[in-house]
Amino acid sequence: MIEKKFIDNLKFLQPLKTVVISVDEGRIIDERIYSYNPYYFVLSKDKSSGDYLIRSCLVTNSDSAAYRALLDNVENYNSSECLELENEILGVESYKYSDVINYLKNDLCEKILESASYRFKDGKFIHKKIGTTKYEFYYLDKKIDSNELPYAILFKLSWKKIKGEIPNKSL
């Protein structure tokens, strides 16, 4: 179950060990992704302490969806996996493509960027996304379908949440 309170309490560059009970190296599905289903933490490593630090949080339902959204790996994605979202996460009535755009523009007054990603080496379509300074919603259909639901949502954690400090550039 996805909990808004859990996501709201995350801080940029917060040590992973302060969020999970015990850091399990087996849950690191890539050198920079920690699986804590349905959360996938995008990590960096502190060079001095060796701690994993959280940079952002992807909400999706499988490792293969996380690989697609974050690492452009389309080959291993099972498109039958559907992300089940509850409206309470953001307060949006529906996560359909057109509803998300309307909510972000009208209710949150966010500037949005709609884009599509293609893999550079072979031109393979990865996803289209709706992005703001706080969120990225990932969709699978090449064409705009106003009823399409996202397969993943990235919550961008802002360094401004760290008592006004600029993050350590040595990461």
Portion of residues within helices: 10-25%
Described by strand count, sense and barrel closure, the largest sheet is:
9 strands, antiparallel
What is the terminal-to-terminal distance?
A: 31 Å
Give the overall average pLDDT: 85
The whole-angstrom Rg is 16 Å
The total count of strands amounts to 9
How many helical elements? Answer: 3
Query: What global shape is seen?
Result: globular
- Please tell me the total number of domains: 1
What is the H-and-E element order?
HEEEEEHHEEEE
Category by helix and strand content: alpha+beta
Approximately how much beta-strand content do the residues carry? 25-35%
Stretches with pLDDT under 50, minimum 5 residues: 161-166
Write the layout of secondary structure elements.
Elements (H helix, E strand, L loop, with lengths): L3 H5 L5 E2 L12 E3 L2 E4 L2 E7 L6 E8 L3 H9 L25 H11 L5 E6 L6 E7 L3 E5 L12 E5 L15
Antiparallel strand pairs: 1-5, 2-3, 3-4, 4-5, 5-9, 6-7, 7-8, 8-9
Structure explained in plain terms:
It contains 3 helices and 9 strands, in the order αβββββααββββ. By secondary structure, it is α+β, with helices and mostly antiparallel strands. Strands 1, 2, 3, 4, 5, 6, 7, 8 and 9 form a 9-stranded antiparallel β-sheet that branches. Strand 2 and strand 3 form a beta hairpin.
